[in-house]
Amino acid sequence: MRVYLPCTVVDSSALADTMARTYTRISGMQSMSRPRHKVKELEALLAEAERRGWRVDKKAAYYRLRCPCGKHQTWVHLTPSNPRYEQEKRQKLQGTGCW
Ligand SMILES: [Zn+2]
Questions:
Q1: 57 and 10 in one domain?
Q2: More confident residue, 3 or 93
């Protein structure tokens, strides 16, 4: 009997739809795996750190950065008052030798 076929077709298209939605949700989550830094320059710094293999974890008042070798770590504050913060943080990161 082929009576089940229409049901199968409906089910698989519903499944495909569900999978498409799930995929959209997962890919959305991947881009949101870390909350974005509100300061544009510092968000760029965090993104660059991730590209270089550093691990970035969001904490209460800062982001923790850990280098690929595991020996270096530093912090990027959420609301630094120093206008040169980003430049100085960058220099410090470059000084680790893991940047
Ligand atoms: Zn290191």
A1: no
A2: 93
